[in-house]
Model the fold of this input.
Amino acid sequence: MRSTRLDSFRRGDLVFDVSDTGAIDGPIVVLLHGFPGSRRTWDAVAPVLEAGGARVVAFDQRGYSPKARPRRRHDYRVIDVVDDVLALLDALDIERVHLVGHDWGGFVAWRMAAVAPERLTGMTVLSTPHPKALVRSLRSSAQALRSMYIGFFQLPAIPEAVLRRRLARLLVVMGLPAPIAEEYQRFLAGPGALRCALHWYRGMWLPDRRARRRPPGPRTRVPTTYIWGNGDQALGRRAAELTRQHAGPRYRFVELDENHWLPERAPSRVASEVLADLDPGGASAAEGRAAAEPGDA
Done:
């Protein structure tokens, strides 16, 4: 394990900003933010994890780091964002970490568990159901209505024009505390930042002819805790409940009386659930008992 801190890492021409705090020799917990946040999403979560002995690593993902904002939507396909996380793990010189993801970060976590389970000791996913559960819920619940904003985000230029001045107001309506909503809006006011953040919605599902490591299996075998807020306006109960059918045997579902913004509104609870999955030696509590096998993720 590295004995020095990481404040950035490079992947090709892109440079990602990193926060690396906590015990240098503690179990590494990597935190992945979603839209419209940044590594600051975890400001209230990280100190609790550090107090529990963890080394906490968070980074501004593709489109959010000022020096990692490719302009084309084709640069935001799932293979690209997953490989960014793998590049971070290589920069840390660590084989396996506990991965925590919220919103789009949760989607990346599910995908990491599918294609690179050998790099994870476990994961904690906040708000975001398993992708297959989300697709199934579109046919059997009101999830399609909840997800209509994604269609709006596909339009060129118009979403940027609408959100540039109204983002904070809309986030407050969705339950995010006003000071944090205003901070997110200021952060995305940087050159190209809002457009690149929206490219996650525009590019994530685009086909990719590049070689894939291996196709995901029907169930995730990485030990997983899924935390969902029953007041989430974007992601409903049906998808949350269906997620169990796509998870492996070492799966925990935690329902909170909260909305979508779990890292910001329930940081102590989120951190306590992550720490519950870490053993004193720094590995996931389920490491070794549920080692992922090729094709099973």
Remarks:
- Strands lie at 8-11, 14-22, 28-32, 55-59, 97-102, 120-126, 224-229, 251-256.
- The chain has one domain: 8-205+216-276.
- Confidence is low (pLDDT under 50) at residues 280-297.
- The two ends are 25 Å apart (CA to CA).
